[in-house]
């Protein structure tokens, strides 16, 4: 599952890629983690808009204190189940998640490092997402996942549903069967580039 991705381009570059106006304000950092802000592109009154939202649908587990922070559900395993199907059936609740790369943890427990993946020749690309308005955090979104392709299999058995520019419209406006077809397809191996690093998955605080 994906718990870290980056957007290392300016808001102007992202807006130009998706054909939207540059937002007047965004609090999304370069690295997105579950429960933190990220940027999405969605449709509003027939036009694409770019908006900052929290990555993850808030979920309160049984037995949690009323004052405890909800758990962010930031990945969607199956659009046909649970809390997702009602939203996925309606195109107005689908969104594009702009990113420059996504990461998976690799290595032994306690010393896992970040392995990054990006789409070849695409400085900016998109993952499929679903969004809604929550009582706890306002606008929130979650990333749709699918079975990995062979390029990612050495690191993880799942990957985001990645979309090429000519597929954005189909995800945002297509019917439910179209959305499910995106989740069931295998993204081409040759379009994935992998970069292994020695950067720790959990950033360690410098020694004092």
Report on this model:
This protein has helices at residues 11-18, 85-88, 168-173, 176-184, and strands at residues 5-6, 31-32, 37-44, 47-55, 57-59, 71-73, 75-76, 94-99, 101-106, 113-119, 125-134, 138-147, 158-160, 162-163, 192-200. The chain is mainly beta and 208 residues long. It has a single domain, classed as hypothetical protein yedk fold (Alpha-Beta Complex).
CATH fold call: hypothetical protein yedk fold
CATH architecture field: Alpha-Beta Complex
Q: What is the overall silhouette?
A: globular
The radius of gyration over CA amounts to 17 Å
Strand-pairing-aware structural class: mainly beta
Q: What is the domain tally?
A: 1
Instruction: Average the pLDDT over all residues and give the rounded result.
Output: 94
Number of helices: 4
CATH class: Alpha Beta
Distance from N terminus to C terminus (CA atoms, Å) equals 34 Å
What is the name of the CATH superfamily? SOS response associated peptidase-like
Helix content: 10-25%
In percent terms, what proportion of residues is strand?
A: 35-45%
Strand tally, please? Answer: 15
Low-pLDDT runs: none
Largest sheet: 8 strands, mixed
